[in-house]
Amino acid sequence: MEDKEIKYISLSKAAEMTEYSQEYISLLCRTKKMKGVKLGRNWVTTADWVREYIDKTNGKSEFVIPVRIESAKKEKGKRSAGNKAGSLERPTFIAYKPNFLTFSEVTVFTIFFGIMLAAFVYFQEMLLLRVLT
Predict the structure, then answer these.
(1) How many CA within 13 A on the CB side of residue 56?
(2) Assuming Cys at both sites, which of 28, 66, 99, 122 could form a disulfide with 34, CB separation 3.0 to 4.6 Å?
């Protein structure tokens, strides 16, 4: 029987395969949502494990997705206080939270809320009529 050697890839390579950032894939591995192995101080995964996760979740995220915004290259000669090389600033991230309620769920909630409100108003009117008579 032949042992199959596992070919690990870095999380940055995995990020290039997907729409997710390297930091988000690291979060998935640390929380055991995606298969990953910690080698030394770095997490690694395989291309098959990445595809398996995407197939399992249909490409939808389970957490808030950190979206990478690339910084523009600084003008030559101008340096920021924290960046002595003056080439690129550190990329920044924003949080994108996907909508959890679908249109049909919102519709059901709205109808339920409307029925409950109508019942509340009806019983209030009935109570008021009993007090007045």
Answers:
(1) 10
(2) 28
> 64 and 108: one domain?
no
Range of the domain at 88: 1-72+83-98
Residues 66 and 128 in one domain: no
Counting the structural domains of the chain, the total is 2
Question: For the whole model, what pTM was predicted?
Answer: 0.44
Q: Is 94 helix (H, G, I), strand (E, B) or coil?
A: strand
First to last CA, the chain: 91
Q: Among 37, 44, 35, 55, which Cα is nearest to 12's?
A: 44
User: Which neighbouring-strand residues pair with 94?
Assistant: 67
> Is 77 domain-assigned?
no
> Considering the domain boundaries, does residue 93 fall inside one?
yes
Could you tell me if 109 and 132 lie in one domain? yes
What does each of the 133 residues of the chain score in pLDDT, given as a tens digit?
Answer: 455 788 999 999 998 888 888 998 999 999 999 999 999 999 999 999 998 988 888 766 555 555 555 554 445 555 555 545 444 455 555 555 555 556 677 788 888 889 999 999 998 888 888 877 6
